Amino acid sequence: VERVVRELKAFKKQMVPTGGKAHVILTLPISDLGYFDESINDFTVEPIEYEILVGAHSLDESGLRATISVR
Questions:
Q1: How far apart are CA 34 and CA 9, in angstroms?
Q2: What 3 state SS string does the chain have?
Q3: Which residues contact 52 (CB under 8 A, 6 or more apart)?
Q4: How far, in Å, are 18, 23, 28, 36, 54 from residue 60 at the CA level?
Q5: In this structure, are strands 35-37 and 42-44 parallel, antiparallel, or unpaired?
Q6: What is the value of pTM for the model shown?
Q7: Which sign, positive or negative, has the C-alpha torsion 15, 20, 24, 54?
Q8: Tens digit of pLDDT for each residue in 2-48?
Q9: Which distant-in-sequence residues (6+ apart) come within 8 Å of 67 by Cβ?
Q10: How far apart are CA 31 and CA 28, in angstroms?
Q11: How far is CA 13 from CA 16, 25, 39, 45, in A?
């Protein structure tokens, strides 16, 4: 199944003063990585590596990155 390159899965609007820092916790259940697979008529999560991006907006390339593996 072909899927989009980026999908918004969790967000929190956090005001941060210029030059300041903020601590933000986001929860991303594994089920949120799934999609409806018409071939099996059910939701599924592919056992692959997913890149998690955290940034100021969807095109922010300077934000935090992490990779997780689903088995």
A1: 11
A2: CCCCCCCCCCCCCCCCCCCCCCCCCCCCCHHHHCEEECCCCEEECCCCEEEEEECCCCCCCCCEEEEEECC
A3: 28, 65, 66, 67, 68
A4: 17, 18, 19, 28, 8
A5: antiparallel
A6: 0.73
A7: positive
A8: 888 889 999 899 999 999 999 999 999 999 999 999 999 999 999 99
A9: 49, 50, 51, 52
A10: 8
A11: 10, 11, 37, 27
Please give the pLDDT value at position 56: 83
Only one residue has tokens 């820092």, namely: 21
Q: Return the pLDDT at 35.
A: 93
CA angle 4, 31, 57 (to 5 degrees): 45
Token pair of 64 as six digits: 């935090």
